[in-house]
Amino acid sequence: MLSTALNVVASIPSPSVSYIDLGPLRIHFYALCIIAGIIVAVLMTNHRLTKRGGEPWVVIDIALLAVPLAIIGARIYHVLTHPGFYFGEGTDPWAVFRIWEGGIAIYGSLIGGAIGAWLGCRWTGIRFTSFADALAPGLIVAQALGRFGNWFNQELFGLPTDVPWGLEIPSDNPAFPAGLADGTLFHPTFLYEVIWNLLGAAVLLWAGRRFTLQWGRLFGLYLIWYSAGRIVWESIRIDPSEIFLGLRVNVWAAILGVVLGLVVMIVQKRRHTGLEPSVYVPGREWSPTSTVQSQDSTDFVDTSAPSADEDAAGTATSTLAAK
Length: 323
What we know:
Elements: H1 2-10, E1 19-22, E2 25-28, H2 29-51, H3 58-81, H4 106-124, H5 128-153, E3 160-161, E4 167-168, E5 185-186, H6 189-211, H7 217-236, E6 243-244, E7 247-248, H8 249-271, H9 308-313
Helix pairs in contact: 2-3, 2-5, 3-4, 4-5, 5-6, 5-7, 6-7, 7-8
């Protein structure tokens, strides 16, 4: 009895509201968490790209394509992996479009966002691998912020638990498992992922500097770190999910993420023995004294010996701007 009382005192309460009404406008905290994450990711990516010679705020041009496609991809992935929520007897197919009610998937956002980022990089001349590496730390921080949306929505929690940091879920919540006693606590998987992701951001920033991870290898490390944690969190979640070969579909996606991250790091390490000569593809370099990108720009000088990758590409440019 005493143990139960102590656990309840130390437990994590769920927010009593998930939105606020401003006149006719309803603002969902879930959406605010996602928007906050996008802003942080853009700011961090902009800082990292400009440090390497990128045009200030070129990330905005890329985000104009990447963010909408990431959201669309996230929703499509969620719907495809939870068809019982939206199709069949007793369901409302129009709920597919009510994204503010929750229901987006990280791996879907990565697929859609990658397509949008690739198109944005083609548009701006930014090297796709440079952008991916610049994005990685900010992306995992954004995912940490986005998980607070699950807390506000009282969703995607884990197995019942008696740990002091258990999450309180009202018994009248539709996601509350039938047959459990009122007051049952659950693993706060949102909090586990927040902590894991913020720790991952620190690891990515350190590893990027310590080992000079370029050519997409830092993004590969992101995939490994994030997906390894996701395998654990997904394994203890109790929300409905499609099951394949005994595992939740997102566990399989996380396993694939780890494998893909390893492949990216190994292949890119073998393919590129030198450092990226610029965050821009050859011929698209940006000059701080002109808005016109020109391969013959005199504002960029080569201050280092050509790397193996530069020789292969037939270029020997540098991203160091001389004033």
